[in-house]
Amino acid sequence: MIAKIGKGENLWGALTYNQQKVDHGHGTVLLTNKIPDLWDQNYSVRFFHRYFEPYLIANNKTEKPVRHISLNPDPEDKVDDKDYLGMAQQYMQEMGYGNQPYVVFKHTDIDRTHIHIVTTCVQIDGKKIPDQYDHHRSMEACRKLEKQYNLKAAHEKKNLNQNSIFKPVDYTKGNIKTELSSVLRHIPKTYGFQSMGAYNALLSQFNICFEEVSGELHGKMRKGIVYFVTDENGKKISLPFKSSLFGKHSGWKNIQALIEKSKVNMKDDPSKPILKRTIETALKTSNSEASFKTQLFEQGVATVIRKNDQGRIYGITFIDHHSQLVWNGSQLSKELSANSFNELWSGSETKPETNIYHNTKADLLFEKSSDHFYNNNITEIFAGLFSGLLLSDTNEDQEEQFFASQMKKRQRKRR
């Protein structure tokens, strides 16, 4: 069994996400703790929120008081409601939340039945329940539950390694070609997307972007892709890397084939209406663009918003990491198109998209000089893209060559 602990600040959003599953027949309320148990199961978000309110009001200075936990047995495990109740109570006790108000929801909207628990880490006196080493304690609690309920043991190391594949590229760590490769060899065949724009939106979550290029080979025009590392604002901060460096999965031809395949597979995907309801709920319970994106992020959905120089929204894309599908807003609903969001948030303060990594002096140095390199050399690079004479795994990295030339220039300046 695997446990996932989400930490956030929007209790209403977490409760709404789960109660919505119940209202649409895709879930049930299994257990309430320090909250009255209604015999007719006629629960509502407002009802639950009332019993959390004293804890949130007492909160001293905890920035993320909400805990949204999911317990996920192996799909082959057969767990009944009685066992889920026992597992939830024992897990919460082990994690220090046994005396807190919490609600246990069972989700049945996918083949893998699992439970979600919503609670708060703030006690009635306003103090925070310590959460140091909570990942380690959570793993220990899961191992105990596996033995007690005869569940399949989760391969935590395997999952951790899989997650590490999809970390955003951090330019400050040096070998960006290796980091690019770890993402580009897996992401195209892991996620579904229906356009090149959606693919670029997906890659933006990993500090990567691409450009389509064309060139002539043996008298025929061919198309290809070159990839770049970007900074936290989506600006290119690396030299171009041709797709063949990372295998055929990241090449133009294969990406086009994946797009056509996704158009068929995603047409009637059952996760589509669920995502649509999740987004609509976040819209109703948020009062700004920032809080809207935060709510969705806490539900495992990333939001990529594209704006022009005047700040007008011309594109919005949602990346559902649960279903591993990428949707443009207009594909979900007319009411979720870019124009609708532009009208909704017009006049509100706009902020650039940010990722978890921040510029260092090395980033800024490279950023200033890379624009000059790009403008003067990109045409030459594209012209020879299909000649087979560009970058290869055995060639010296272009970034090394560029760095060396920059060092020589600096040495000459010092002299």
Automatic annotation (TrEMBL):
It holds the Pfam family Relaxase. Residues 56-151 form the MobA/VirD2-like nuclease domain. It comes from the Bacteria. NCBIfam families: Bacteroid_MobB. This is Relaxase/mobilization nuclease-like protein. It comes from Chryseobacterium aquifrigidense. The lineage of its organism: Bacteria, Pseudomonadati, Bacteroidota, Flavobacteriia, Flavobacteriales.
